[in-house]
Each structure stands twice: as C-alpha cells, then as structure tokens.
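Anyone able to model this chain together with nickel (II) ion?
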Amino acid sequence: MSATTRDLKSDIDEIMPGVIADRRYFHQHPELGFQEFETAKLVQERLAAMGVEDIRTGIAVTGVTGLIKGAKPGGPDKVVLVRADMDALPIHEENKVDYVSTIDGKMHACGHDAHTSMLLGVGRLLLDRRDEFSGTVKLLFQPAEEGGGGARVMIEEGVLEDPPVDLVFGQHVAAEVPVGQVELRPGACMAAADRFEILVKGRGGHGAQPHLTVDPIAIGSQIVSALQTIVAREVDPTKQAVVTVGAFLAGDAPNVIPDTATLRGTLRSFDPEVRELIGRRVGEIAVGIASAMRAEVEYTYAPGYPATINDPEQTAMVREVAEEILGAENVREGELMMGAEDFSYFLEKKPGCFFFTGTRDEEKGISWGHHHPRFDVAEDGMAIGMEVMVSAVLRALNEE
Ligand code: NI
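re: yes, here you go
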C-alpha cells in the first residue's frame, strides 16, 4: 500500500461523518426528477464552501457543475467528468430509521442520496490533492435519472463542453453486492429500454353477436402471443433481448365487445442492431395480425435510454484501481443487467466507466432491493465508493 493510498483512507475516515450526515439529510428530504431544488441548493453551498471553481447551476432545471483544477506542473491536461444523480422516487418509505424520509410518498429508494453526498466527498478529497494531478475534474450533479433522462438534457445544454470533457466516470451503489466489493463490466453492462404502444382498432358490439363485430380483445391476444416469437425466433440466441407487454387495456363489461384495445410494453436490448430489430418487428407483427383479422393498428415506438456501454480500457483501469484497494477477490465482472441507466448518454459521447459499489449488509438487515420501500444503503460502502472513484480519477488524469 503506497503512502498516498494510506493518506486517502485516513482522509476519508475524517470526512465520513460529514458525508453520512449529508446523505441522511438528502434521504430525509427526497425530491423527484427535475424538482431537486433544495438538494441542488445544498450541493451548490457545499461546493462553494470547499472552493470548487466555476460553479454553474440550473442546468436541465436543477443540475449543477463545478471545476477542480489540478496544480501539478506538466503532465497530460485532460478533463475528467464525475457524475452523481440526485433524484428520488415516488415511493412511500417503510424503513424505521431515524433518518427516514420526511415526505409522504417520496423516497430515496435507489441510493441517489448516497451518490450525491459521495460526490461532494470526492470533490473535497480531490481539492486536497490538487498537486497530485494536472488537468481538470468536472463534478456533475444531475437531475432526473429515474425516467426523465436528465443526463441527456444536461448534455444538450452543453455540459460536455467548456471545458471539453475527455473521460466520464460514474458509480451506483448496489444492494445486491456486499460492502467491500465492487462490480464492473467492460462493454455493454445495462440495457437499452424502449417503450411501445399498440392501439388495436376493431368494431365493438354485443357480446352475443361476435360475427357483427371485429373483436380487438381476440386480436390483441394473438398479437401478445406472436410478440413472444421475436425473442424466441428472430433474435440471435447468443444476444439478449426482452419484449414485455405490461398493460392490456380493453373493455369493461362481460357482454360487450369493445371498439379498441391498447397494449403497452417495454423492450430491452444491448446490441444496437437487436434494438432496431425488436422495435421494428413489434410494429410489423401487430399490423400484420390486425390486418389478417380485419382490424387496424396504430403503432407508437418511444425510444428510451440507450444501452450503457463501458469503454474497455477505462474499465480495465478502474478494475486495476479497485483491485489494489480491495484485493482481486473483491472485484468482479458483473452480470449483464436488463435495467437501464441514463449515464449511458455520457458514455455514448465519451469513453469512461460506470461501476457498482457494494452497499449490502445482511447483518444490519440492509438487503432490500433497489426501488423497494425498505431499500437502504450500508454507509461504510460509501467510503469504498469514494476511495475507488478518487483513485480512478487521479490515475486517469495522470495517464498519458
Ligand atoms: Ni439509480
């Protein structure tokens, strides 16, 4: 263990009470996507107090960025972006902790409270290490990861420019991974998530006179069955995809055939070609079946977050750093995840790595999954997340 690493550990010990206090404050005051006004205000105050430069606010409504400029002479002059998401979820918390959410129906059930406070800690640790790097760290606090695509809006508003960003890093706490471990994966790691809607337009009538109708429920059922063949028969079996119909809305009386049926679903994939294929084939199959059965279909496809694709070189670098800190046995290649994450938009534009830091502690009863009303974060995992992130950023800035 080098002297620097030991110093970093003891500095983290020193700031941990503050990091935990901030995390608990955010946890008690959850705000939904694009409404993170109080969260952003505290972030801005903290950044200003610690001496972060060029603080910009109100990006994508509530997003905040700030710069830390290295003071090491010579060396590469890169700009490395580190991101935290700030939004909570519309979930009513069921935990019995003294830092429980104070707002009915809103909860930090994905750990973005931890991400925000950890990035404030990372900022402080990097400010104290300015003489260890050249170049610039851009801290980025993002709104609306949970469906709002805050990352995309911030990119549209220019956060990857001025100064232009070279590399991007982010992390997520992981309820499935024990404290003391890190998981990461080169290449695709989280899925693209797209939505669709199929409106089947038949002709309603009396349930006892089906021959006088065009029954959208019978047709919709055939469509649901046929959609299952896309993954089974059309997608390369060595690749992954999901086609799920999650809503089937039609009729309300047992003896009435309705005019229309609405099917809504989600599509998950990793490979851009598979993504295109399943999005197109859902519509073609729906239209084909409906026309064979005398109905019409309106097909709507709504692209969501792209797949999260880690740069292999940067992921290998983070892996090496994490192994030095935690030991090789505690750093694993994660499984592919069918969930989606809007850090993907940053990784579409710039190379980097998104990794998972364990915050599960079964002995403390912290084992509920993300988005569960009893989700919680084992806070000692936050210290490890900061240590890995600070070390990775320092290495990235010092590598030619
Ligand atoms: Ni999340």
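The domain at 192-302 is CATH 3.30.70.360 (Alpha-Beta Plaits).
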